[in-house]
Amino acid sequence: MKNVPFKGVIAYPITPFDTNEKVDIDLFKKLLERLIRNGSHGIAPLGSTGVLPYLTDQEKEAITEATIQQVNQRLPVLVGVSNLTTERTVHHAKFAEKAGATAVMIIPMSYWKLTDDEIVRHYDTVAKQISIPIMAYNNPATSGVDMSPALLKRLLEIPNVTMIKESTGDVQRMHYLRKELGEDVAFYNGSNPLALAALSAGAMGWCTAAPNLIPELNIALYDAIQENDLRYAQDIFYKQINLLKFIVNKGLPRAVKAGLAILGEEGGNLRSPLKPLTDIEKSELKTILEKSKHGIENVIG
Amino acid sequence: MKNVPFKGVIAYPITPFDTNEKVDIDLFKKLLERLIRNGSHGIAPLGSTGVLPYLTDQEKEAITEATIQQVNQRLPVLVGVSNLTTERTVHHAKFAEKAGATAVMIIPMSYWKLTDDEIVRHYDTVAKQISIPIMAYNNPATSGVDMSPALLKRLLEIPNVTMIKESTGDVQRMHYLRKELGEDVAFYNGSNPLALAALSAGAMGWCTAAPNLIPELNIALYDAIQENDLRYAQDIFYKQINLLKFIVNKGLPRAVKAGLAILGEEGGNLRSPLKPLTDIEKSELKTILEKSKHGIENVIG
Amino acid sequence: MKNVPFKGVIAYPITPFDTNEKVDIDLFKKLLERLIRNGSHGIAPLGSTGVLPYLTDQEKEAITEATIQQVNQRLPVLVGVSNLTTERTVHHAKFAEKAGATAVMIIPMSYWKLTDDEIVRHYDTVAKQISIPIMAYNNPATSGVDMSPALLKRLLEIPNVTMIKESTGDVQRMHYLRKELGEDVAFYNGSNPLALAALSAGAMGWCTAAPNLIPELNIALYDAIQENDLRYAQDIFYKQINLLKFIVNKGLPRAVKAGLAILGEEGGNLRSPLKPLTDIEKSELKTILEKSKHGIENVIG
Amino acid sequence: MKNVPFKGVIAYPITPFDTNEKVDIDLFKKLLERLIRNGSHGIAPLGSTGVLPYLTDQEKEAITEATIQQVNQRLPVLVGVSNLTTERTVHHAKFAEKAGATAVMIIPMSYWKLTDDEIVRHYDTVAKQISIPIMAYNNPATSGVDMSPALLKRLLEIPNVTMIKESTGDVQRMHYLRKELGEDVAFYNGSNPLALAALSAGAMGWCTAAPNLIPELNIALYDAIQENDLRYAQDIFYKQINLLKFIVNKGLPRAVKAGLAILGEEGGNLRSPLKPLTDIEKSELKTILEKSKHGIENVIG
Question: Which residues contact B282 (CB under 8 A, 6 or more apart)?
Fold first, then answer.
């Protein structure tokens, strides 16, 4: 049996910056603690939400260590270690393992579109240098390469590639993974607006930045599916769909930061060229958040 | 309250041709009777499956009359009356109403991409000439125009446009329809591989040619959703997904005809330029059908 | 050597309707005469511009006969005979030949996406029933099927398929046709904004509705290329690019009709669901036309 | 008048690596010298061809200095300084200016899709810190963001943004730039297979890695256009189109390295995950190169 240490709602923290655009580790830990206390089933630093590609090696290492320390074994930790070069990916994967990560997530970043063989060799090289499991992540919108189901199948033949995160937003990919790769394959949804469809299709978990803003609704959706209560899951989903779409459309780091401010929480600054939402966008988000909160009281409270 | 006479599995018959490529009305009635007896909740002649655009006006009228006669009020009948010109659409809509159709389905066929205003005027002109409800059908792959959610909202303001069939295959459209247009809006899924996701999202019915081949599985899926049993729905769906994908990929008229032959049923000929599946494709279909049938026994029988 | 009776600017007339949306043959002939007198090198009735798919069989036949009669052998005539069914395509191709057409143009219309084999068989069936040459027309935006260069190569093996009209708007297709199929292959540009690039790439002609409005500029562009004067061709092209883009974006029948009115010419009505341009669009067209006319005087006059 | 120091064929060197995947500066200089001697009109290190995003800051600086030194004012030098963060982009732009670069090239790299305002602010921040001109580079395939013509227009309002490189491969963008932004705007073609169409449309230069392999053909094409000899330009273009398509399809660094080996030149290694072409691909490239060389003799020699 493959080593699959994640299920449920896997929460993605943002990486906050101070006014000089330096990483603010203290604030990062505070934001992490919120996610843990609000019921997330796993924590995933250095994802897209955490603006991984905008950080230096030293910053990535500091974030990795801060996460392991703050989580302190209360939840499994999935560290993003993706890099354009194989050499740097190996470096960060080894660092994460040594620091105590439960698993690493790797997306095949590509400036030059990689061939299938290059991608397999990339994962294989990293996999041989670590003992913890790898989640292969498919997100053509950010990586520039769309890993076909056939390629994902090849990656799963590497012993410690045990999990797949799919963010194309196409539910047919979920069907393929389940139908063709067997019920054993652990696949996770990375497309927020697809949460209901993906969990209905059998996804083992949901990788999401939404718990920074509406953790109760996210977890209630997952629980409803677990309890085989589709009708309730549908209700809960329609309470959060507008928020899920908004944060994806505006970019997760920008939207989460703006949402935290609306909730009265400190979220820090962004690193340029990323800039805050406009006032109109913030006001739109405020309305959506309030309606969602109202939904929480009605449905859960 | 809007007049919404359809729910559940709405079955689409093929239009069979004889060896001279003339419509075979007797065989059509036999195929219709199979669909009725196998438990369909509605019948929809002259859809894409029924190769509507390849027929003459006289042939369309003969099929309409044959359907009403054969169904004989046992089920509601949804007649396709789409045409490139408004004048012909009105003609066929009036004919269908007079013949006894429960409702008509209209897709905005477009050689020249229509503007939103032209589409609204097209539906409005037809709607004013009939009293039965209209199902507006969105399928950019065949019509050449993708009706935005905003346009669908405008169409629903026309009193007898009461139903929407969505075939883009994007579950987010379903979410929009339910969330933005309210729980009253009756929307139907027209994309076979999206059946589980669409019904999970609250679709009122499923417009499909699949009951020509695997009616038990199609109806069992709908029933499981009705009984709020997601886990069983998922099982049932994964038994039929390969068949659903196959018939869509190969073209419904070709695939249904080939499937009928495999099941030992007479399905007639196609009209040129459409040609039968190749032997390799037929053999692939045979394997998929057999596995589905095995699925039926295991899950239902 | 293949029979290739067309080169240069092949002009597409609109099909005008009267106030009852009936075809107005007298007006059609008047519009045809303008195109002939303004220097077009060929005439192509029943194209997209002529709203072929919105016409009845009788109307198509009347237009065919009116064209042959009016042109009266002054120019070669290319009659559009495309139809969804093979049987009707054969019918209209034979009619056109008998009426005196120089060649026929056939696009593989497809409601159900046709396979390559079906398309080849479709063309082959028609080709065997006529002696005049066939222009194969690729325009995925209106036909729903994109014929690959490999498929076009197969079609050219049919003896009387001697010409290819490419309307994808991708100049790389032109390069392929010239490079892979040899200098003998006669290919024509059907994408107006691609006129300069296509003629620079070696296209033998330009199939266009623009001569209804700016014949001098269209013909001057072709002539400049013939005279190997790229710099002048570039100048002439930039005088007309805005008009070419406008008529494509708004739909050729709508835009040509509006342009004729601006020029003080009778253009008749459209057939529903097609509707006239809005006042704002007409005013935009007026400005573009005036600037083009100014361009003509400066460059040519 | 804007400061536009480039025209003609701007050659992109690869960045060669040794067997330990370290940058090989000596070999880089040798490759640079070949490009200079073979007639290029400008040199552009640290482009996509030079695998900019796979290099460390130190490596980028070493390449910049080596280029300035080797070129030694024989040709203008365009240094790529793009980076995900604004801070690093400023750093490298200032470094390039100080080192003696003629201009810098900046593509708005984006992991998170940038808004138009963010992109303008990004360029503006960099522009204010340097005095040399900036070439704004649009290539959605590698940057993840497609700068609209309207956005490019805004960028050109920044005083030292004086040049635009377009790599979408859509010739209509060239038309827009010339028509809407005026004859003053210096735009360059970055899509190799579009070379003929772009130069015919008035592009001021061609940014290309092809001179690493077929400099005579590249320069002959540019010269023919300058001499207003379209017919010869067409001939020359068709001699090289297959090579241009091949190097783009296979990825410029991989293809150029393989091509150099075929020509008997040392090209060094690639950095992982990028891997060499397969033997079949190399053999295909050999055939294409030989046919091109034959073309050179026939047409030029």
Answer: B258, B261, B262, B276
